[in-house]
User: Fold these one by one.
Assistant:
Number 1:
Amino acid sequence: VIRRIVPALLVALALAVAPVQAQAPTQAARGSIHSLADDGAPPVSQRAHIHLFAAYAFTGLLVFGYAVALVRRGRRITAELKALG
Amino acid sequence: MTTDDNSLAGTRRWAIALNALAALALTASLYMVFFYAPTEAEMGVVQRIFYVHVPSAWVAFLAFGVVALCSLGYLWLRDERLDAISVAAAEIGVLFTTIVLVTGPLWGKIAWGAWWVWEPRLTLTLLLWFIYVGYFILRGATESPERGKRFAAILGIVGAVDIPLIHMSVTWFRSQHPEAVVLRPDGPRAAPEIVQTLLVSFLAFTILFFGLLMVRYGLERLQHSVDAQRVRASLRPSVRSKSEVVA
């Protein structure tokens, strides 16, 4: 039974997925860095500026937040050490 | 003052000096990124994410390299200081890998039109992040701390195998990720201003890594002292009660 059902299920699944796969946009169709140059339209837009700002803001906040967390942790451990004598 | 106190004071001095230097270098790097480096012709302004994305990846690799070396040393010598350096470097490595994994999609969405692509370099970098998050989970998952340290050290060494795979993935596999621009056998391919800005960013991030490593290492050693004091404090009453029983 397994020998008959499993291949039949796989074939049914492949037939169901095939038309969806054929219509799906591929990565190449979406455009790579090199194909953007061919279009002659560099994506210099408001969205690009927002992404740039978000990247630097995220990095700054993460590093600064980590540094602050380290300092706070240092104070807590030092206080603990003093309390223990 | 004990030798341990002296070494901790030395670590603290180094940490302050390195972090001050990192702040200066980062300021210079930010100035170069926004006022010196030209806007790249193909990708436009979003390409400036490059100056934070690539140095963050470099620092993550450096951090996990340090984890692997110190873990190897710890397994061999059982020196607690090497384990402390490994923990410190792993934490900073996870921090910078997170930056890579967030800034990459922010760049990719504009350049490729997709936030994420399951291609080799991105997938292997995500795997690296999971490995070193697992490093911390593994440390805390065992009943015996010594066993946890040993297991984590093994994972720290095995996980480092992913680093050359990530670096070479754009050459070995069909990849959408751009190839190396500066570290190429035939020399840098980008404009001199771009290369100079990238090198200053590399320097700033490297100094920042060592500054943060010193702070985190000092904290790990302090925490070790607190734990040792706690153990001594918990043993004291039982020793007294035993002597009372004998008396």
Number 2:
Amino acid sequence: MTEDFVTTLRTQLREAAEREARRSPLMRALPRPRSLVWAGAVAAAAVVIALLAATLGGPPKPLPTAPAPHVVARLAIADKGGLVSTGFGSLWTYDAVSGDVLRLSPDGSVVARIKTESDILDGWAGAGAMWALSNTRVYRIDPETNRVVARIRLPLPTRSHNAVVTFPGAAWVLGVDGMQGIDLKTNRLRPLVAGERVPTGFTADATRWYVTDRDGELTTYDGVTFRQLDRVRLPVAGLPLVAAGDDVIVSSAAGVAAVDPKTGALRWRTNLGVSRANGAAAGLGAIWVQGTPVSGRDQLWKLDPKTGRVLSALRMSDFGVTGMITTRDRLWIMSPTGVLTAFR
Amino acid sequence: MRLADVSDEALLAGSDPAAFEEFYARHVETLLGFFRRRTRNADTAADLTAETFAAALSARRRYKPEAGAAIAWLFGIAMKKLADAQRRGYAEQRARRRLGMERIELSDADIARIDALGEGTIASALLEALQPDQREAIRAHVLDERSYAEIAVEQDVSEAVVRKRVSRGLATVRQRMGARR
């Protein structure tokens, strides 16, 4: 998948303009070449000013600002992007059109393309395997061999399942009628667990599900047993985007909010001026939100996880998000057009 | 204020990267069509367009609104790049290299689009060169698909006059297009 000439040139020019803009203030701040005598005098004056400032308190400090995230890799790896997950020392994603599951090295290069012979609706790495969901089957891929080791047929009707979710020792398939666990030893589906409420969205961390429903409540379930742990009323109307520490980040009007899933307390709310928050990820000491502003291109915001304050922002080359995840030193965003971008 | 409401001159004078992006978005197709028409080659047109905008980005601090319209300034750069390319036989990449921009390979779809822009620019330019009454008649009948009778009422002339204006205008366009080829 390649972008058209006009869009690619636009991206190149914007990146060049941003580089110029970053460079310009620095160039302006640097002193012009001076003689050593002048340099010595200026340095001495600076020491005096610094001592005076320390004694008298000095001018008010500016608000701390973080450097804007920047693109370190941009990889067109699929015709249609999907979720991105991590596991077994790799990044995992898939080409939703060709049906290829893609295993990527930590720098984003494709190390394996694994055919599933079908379009893929969803995929996630965990519970000892990479799992890919199609209209009719769940594919289990062995990370040791990069081969499909099980093709688990889903109950009819087709297209009635939409997600596969894993926790340590458990894998689930979500459908319109409820969810079914996968027996990891036999690769068979367990009986349906019907949801008692109509879910509107969910997210998960390593051990728990967080599910919102039509009644405006947020319910926490154990990831392995699906036992209900907490149920609270959402303080804002929104959908869960990502679990971050003890909080669940939900979309909220024109921005995002952090909610305590145990008490329902609103920890913070930040207006980003978006018409839609497309995705979020937690990691690298921040909450990352990709959203579509009311006008203009999509943006990426870096937020303080404790306060929700915007630390920095970046305009995006691509529209939309299908997958968003952090690794040790990078944020990865997959676009609907199959472009995987790494930020640092 | 939205960038869409800002003048070309203010966009060029601004240091915000988004301002230059808006300036680019407004004029990229015009420039592609212009270069395609002058070079008859989509690849060269794309190279020259990229080089022109890269040079414009680098030089935009030197642009003075009082010296003339921003689009005229852009076309000044474009004409220079075109003249250089015609002299050398290829489009140079100096401005792009300075900004770290790679050359973009065109897809078949890109080539088709640039070719269409060239044609569109020709037709548009030829239409603009017509007498105003012929131009308005062609726009109303051919582009807006309105009937002769409707146009006649609106322009307060007979239907036959409208037909004649459309017919003569199109004949002129055809003749000028043929003369160019």
Number 3:
Amino acid sequence: MNRVKANILVLVLTVVFSCGLPPDQQALVDVQTFTKKNLDTLVSASEKLCVAVPMPTANGWDATGTDQASIETMKTQWKAARVAYERIEGSIAVLFPELDESTDQRYDGFLETATDTNLFDDQGVTGIHALERIIWSNAIPPSVVEFEKALGSKFVEAQFPKNETQSKNVKEKLCPKLVSDVTEMRQQYSFVRLDAASAFRGVIGSMREQFEKVSFASTGEEESRYAQSTMLDVKANLEGAQLTYEAFRPWITSQKGSALDAKIMQGFVVLEKAYNETPGDAFPAPPLTWSSVSPSAADKNTPFGKLFLAVQKQTDEAEPESLVKHMLEAATLLGIPELKMK
Amino acid sequence: MRVLVLVVILMSCGPQTEMPDSGTLKTYFIATDTDFDSFRGWERVTIAGNLASLQPDGGEPEHQSGQRTIYINQRPKPGATEFPVGTIVVKEMPDRILAMVKRGGTYNAKGLIGWEHFRIYFRPNQTAVVEWRGLGPANGEDYGPRGSSCNTCHGANKSSDGVLNAAFRLRNP
């Protein structure tokens, strides 16, 4: 081995062995990298979604004819964007409340403070669910329609663009607004100097998201209600929580938290198993007699009942052996108090 | 070669933080816990006046009465019409620590534009942790006249970019 090769070997070995960051710092690097990667996917999928929006025509969209393929592409990209955001929402939403609202607010959430008679422009009801409401407008479940009609006079029926103005608005206003907002989110995130507390709270936030979503499922209020893909959302929430938590494991175990870590990992397994028993992107249909407060024994035994109870058990911090309870214990072990959620 | 080794080591270790996107003039300051760690060493003023007149309906009083110390991490330049991005104002009271941070951009567009509100918890080991952050208090908390939020009083004070304390207000010509 000549002198140059020897020096290169020394260089490589030195770099390899000198870059072991302390576990708390390594966790931050990993979480930040994971978040940025998903923000990149979110922006990229949103852009592709918008590229696929049919060109404006006098008669609007031809959903069963010339525009069918475009709409299918929009659906595919919509789901890609959705998964990317749901993986990181737990840590992102608290940092960007306004962008979270403009991109991820539900229809009924927008109507709490405003009215919107033009569903295709970039004012009022906007974001990923506004687009979802249009893209899946011919396949919305009756329970969802019933729930939204009950919102009263502010309710405007979902539909495809039916004229040039409407289709132009989707192409040039509503969809670009989503791209602009998620791009802004990604840009601002590049200014975040993440700390351990903020990052770990994101994991807990992701877990709470899952219970919120399953809780709303029985009333037509579920998050991705038009696409019937809220199961896909919660799977992404769980995946995001698992991958983010993975970054913290060395730190937790270095603080004599191995037993706690094992309980948390076990909790993930239980939830993952429950989710895997629900194939597809949609929640199982809740029984007509479902009550989340006091479900009957028969209702508990349905696919929806089993899913609801599994999520409830693992996300209830009052439950001594729940996943979230153990996560809060891990946060305490790391010196992180809970972030109050708005 | 040894210099090269040292340079590579220095460049390849430590947190891999990326610089913000280049080619943009936008600047943001998104505070995290550690930004509050040293606030007790900043310029400060202690006040004890009662501002109960600001709360005619008898809302939560502690935020505006009793002893409170207000800290600022940096003063704006003389004649500035707003506080620079990165300004942190902390208000410490016997039972709580509140803060507002000039985050920049159009954040808090419907309230105190560009400012983010915080409640801070200070650990015994003298490091800070954010209890809540955002456009206003967490659910169930109230710091002004009933039904109001941080933005109600601070957002109304446009002439001093939301900073109410006399010692730290903007001094415009």
Number 4:
Amino acid sequence: VVDVMRRWLPAPRPRPDPLPSADAEAAGVLAARLDGVAQVRLGRSLALLVVSTGGCGACELELRMLDGVAYGLARLGLRFVGVPGQADVLLATGPLTRNMHGALLRTWEAMPGPRWLVAVGGCAIDGGVFAGSYATLGGIGAALPPDLVVPGCPPTPAAVLAGLHTLVAANT
Amino acid sequence: MTVATLIRAGQALPMRPWPRFLLSSEGWRAMVAALADQGGPAFLGLWADAAQVHALFLADAPLLASAPVEAGLYAAPSRHRPGAARFERMVADLWGHVAAYGADSRPMLDHGHWPALHPLSPRALPYAGTPERTEFLAVPGVGQHTLEIGPVAVGSAGGGIGAPVHLHVIAAGSLAVQLEARTGYAHRGCQVLLPGPLPAGARLAARLNGEATVAHSTAFAHAAEAALGIEAPPRARALRGIMQELERTAIHLAVLASVCAAAGARAAALRAGSAREGLLRASAAAFGHRLLMDAVVPGGVATDLAPGGAAAILGALDAMAAQDLTPPAVLDRLTGIGRAGRVQCAAGPAGGMEFGSPMAAAAPAGGDAAARVRARMQDLPRSAALLRRALGLLPPGPLTTALPAGGGEGLGTAEGPHGAVWHWLRLDGGSVADGFALDPAWLHLMLAEDACAGAALADVPVILESVAAAVPGMDL
């Protein structure tokens, strides 16, 4: 009977990892940049838009994991959106190719604000292995100053989550 | 005469492990004309250097044919192999060599933003023009409308987290008449970055396509080792095989998660994602990196299997096997949609490029989206069995072979999660002088366009996820 019941009962549900702690110092700096209006409007809920500025695709693979069971993005009030008009945070991956420069700027301009820019991965920070070619600008800093950087090649989902947690902590 | 005979009639150059054949312009033209015969070898890819074009075919063995570019022209293989058209556009953008009578001469990688025209040509022209609007292929018909998607937020899974690509969809009512992908947004200039020290080249090769980093590192290492006439030690070869199977399994699960998400099966997507997360953690425990980036290096592997790594991998495989990852409802949703017929002809009758070798038999020509997903699903237990066996039979010994500072040419291949990848390398004094990396994305993108033609608009996202073309691999 126990065997039969075990077959029909659902498997133990996988539990999310404990939340990585926010970086208190960076949170303080970010909080200083916010005004009261932003806090009232956004609270702890931030909408994330991923813009790939031309990397190898590994950062995107890892960012996709954030929405899964192990990382539970929604615990922080965070969610991915596909439209810049709904986004508060732009997560940029890739070394910023010249062919994506215009699209990144137009996406940023279409975000209503208050808004944040996060450079995800070594390429977005300084171009990584793709720096110095005719086709790249060596990181998103060439177009827009990032508020937060998450190093790694690619950064683990836990590292990105810690960075986003820092943003949320600054926001409350 | 057949294509293979015509290529083998050229001058055999010392490339390892297979020779490269240098044809005259006449020989190349005869080869292109012979491609009209559908019994010829599969076309894998086309690239160039300052003076020559190179075409890779697969018959019973790989056949690499080269020919001089004369007066800036070469005969276009796309006359008889439509899959060559995008390669010809890439060659024209980067080197300025024109494919005579090619199927498509529009720019592809060059969007008009680079500081030079034909940046890889010794006669690169400084360029400060204004970018022109892209011309998309028109379809005759009335009552059509177009949809523009991308290059930001393409892909239905998780709010559009994917490589940058612009999809131009011509629709009539609720049917997609034609889908055309504009690529080049992720063009990073890999060809100009590649020459230099071998370790730097290997790091670049690992980042050509993040979804096949182990496969590209391994093919690069194979090409370098062939060029130098050495072989990786047995333990390194076994560890490479383990890493390749780990990557293959994890990417299959990522594709399955994206397909399920696009099909609206959220629970199934989460289940596949959890299984993938377990494998990535096992990979990190075993080799120190979740995606195994830079773990394979020319001459061997960078890291040994960590203590406890084998147990972590076996645990993740057990957890994966305990789950039902093939929801019948998702397969029903995929059945009969996204059927592709043209691409097999494009690659040639023997061209199992829809997927690489082990899966080619499982995903027959003209397969629908369900067939493609089923091919990946059937691959999971095969990979798991290979992993279990390889972990049990790991030979002892060193991890690397010393790299001599020699020169030469080599061709290497490895089976990646989306199909076979190929690397051609020319070494000089132990450094990379020239090279090219061939990713299955080139033909997958064509498969995606083909599979979406005539589909319902609502099915397009699911079909695209079922093909899973990894665009960074062809954006170079």
